[in-house]
Amino acid sequence: MTSTPHTLKAFDEEQNALRALIRRMGEHAQRALDDALRCLLEHDAEGAARIVARDHQLDDMEAQAETHVVQIIARRAPMADDLRDLIAAHKIAGTVERIGDYAKNIAKRVPMLEPVGEAASPSPLPVSLLPEMGRVAGAQVHDALEAFITRDATLAAQVCASDRVVDDYYTAMLRSLLTCMMEAPQNIAPATHLLFVARNIERIGDHATNLAEMVYFAATGQRLGERVRGEDGVRL
C-alpha cells in the first residue's frame, strides 16, 4: 500500500523529533565532559557533585528515545533505509548515555584529588594533557552526532580515522603517570585517579568511534569495519 503525503510528512516529523532528542543527549553528554574536566582542574567538588546529580537527565532522555523508536516502528512499519536508521538511532542513544556515564565517573574523581590546576602548587603529574585530550574526544562525539543528524557518511568515516589521536594522548598519559609513580611513592594515589580519568576520556573516544560506525552503516548499508585499511591502520 502506498503511503499518503500526510503519512509521509508525519513520519518525517517523528524522525526529526527523534534526531533532535538525540542531539540534545549529545549536547548534554559533551557539556558533562567539559564541566567534569573544568571541575577537575579547578578542584570544584561542588560543581562535580552537580554533574553527578544531573546524570539522571541523560538516562531519562535515553528512555524517551527508546520509547520513540518503538512507537515509530509500531505505527509506521518502516522498511529498508528507514528501519536501519531507526535501529541505529536506538543504539546511538544508548551509546550517548554511556558517554555521559564516563563524564560522571570523571566528576566522581574530583573530591579524591588535591587541586591540580594552575592555582595549585607545582606538581609532577602530567595534567596538562587532559583538557586537550577531552577536547578531542568531545569533538569526536559532536562530529559523530552531526554525521547522524545530516546522514553524512564521509564525516562519520573521518571520526573513525581520528580515533587514534585520543589513543595517542592516552598512551602519553599512561607513560608519564607510570614514571611519576616509580619516581615517588606519594604520587601513586593521585596518579592512579588521573589514570582513571584518562581512561574514561579514552573510552569516550572509543564510543564516539562506535557512534560514527553506526552512522556510516545507517547511511550506506555497509559496515565501515569491513573496509580496507591503509598501511598506517586508518580505514580507507
UniProtKB/TrEMBL annotation:
According to the entry, every stretch annotated as the PhoU domain falls at: 22-110, 131-215
Q: Does the keyword Nucleotide-binding apply?
A: no
Keyword Electron transport listed: no
Pfam families to which the protein is assigned, alphabetical = PhoU (PF01895)
Checking InterPro entries in the record gives:
PhoU, PhoU-like_sf, PhoU_dom
Highest taxon of the source?
Bacteria
Q: Where in or outside the cell is it found?
A: Cytoplasm
| Keywords associated with the record | Cytoplasm, Phosphate transport, Transport
Assembly description: Homodimer.
Family statement: Belongs to the PhoU family.
Q: What task does this protein carry out?
A: Plays a role in the regulation of phosphate uptake.
Give the protein name, as stated in the record: Phosphate-specific transport system accessory protein PhoU
Question: What species is this protein from?
Answer: Novosphingobium organovorum
- Taxonomic path: Bacteria, Pseudomonadati, Pseudomonadota, Alphaproteobacteria, Sphingomonadales
